[in-house]
Design a protein that fits this description.
The chain is 82% helix and 0% strand. By secondary structure, the chain is mostly helical. The protein has one domain. α5 packs across α6. The longest helix has 48 residues. The protein is flat and about 75 Å long. The two termini are 19 Å apart.
């Protein structure tokens, strides 16, 4: 067995556990016959079931998000490499000249700059035209209430994202 195959199997096992364990915890909580032996703490089974379900939903969404980000990152890198090799081949075969390539690259650069300016305006929370620590504080103040209201979902989302991003290799 190759090392990469073992690593892939471990990643798949970890992904399955991350997705199945919260659901299994919710199913265990449905067993109302053993209520006296479940927990000495003042926690209702409905609370445990709700948190397990939130964790399962969060981890699933996070895993899908991480996988999508990783695949988009790989696609961008592949596109860049293919464009570079294709450009060099076209120059070598005299299909295009240096001036034509320069015009194409300037057009691509302008389009990227335009997209970056647009994204920067969306990320700039305080409207000062720069991305600063104040923007992160404003974003945190908007996200913190939802994360504190649903901690299991937030934790599952982060864990699922990391697992999905890593599984996308």
């Amino acid at each position: 067995m190759h090392a990469s195959t073992g690593m892939t199997r471990r990643r798949h096992l970890l992904a399955a556990l991350l997705l199945v364990l919260p659901l299994a915890a919710a199913e265990i909580c449905l067993d109302t016959e053993n209520l006296s032996t479940m927990s000495p703490h003042n926690v209702s089974l409905d609370d445990v079931r709700r948190h397990a379900g939130e964790c399962a939903v969060g981890s699933t969404c996070g895993a899908l998000g991480g996988l999508i980000v990783r695949k988009l990152q790989g696609a961008a890198l592949t596109t860049s490499i293919v464009f570079a090799v294709g450009s060099m081949a076209a120059l070598h075969l005299d299909w295009i000249n240096g001036h034509q390539l320069q015009i194409v690259l300037q057009g691509i650069w302008r389009a990227l700059q335009h997209q970056m300016r647009r994204l920067t305006r969306q990320i700039d929370m305080d409207g000062d035209g720069e991305i600063t620590i104040e923007d992160t504080k404003i974003a945190y103040s908007k996200v913190a209430p939802a994360a504190s209201k649903h901690p299991a979902m937030a934790g599952g989302l982060v864990g699922g994202f990391l697992l999905g991003y890593n599984a996308g290799r």
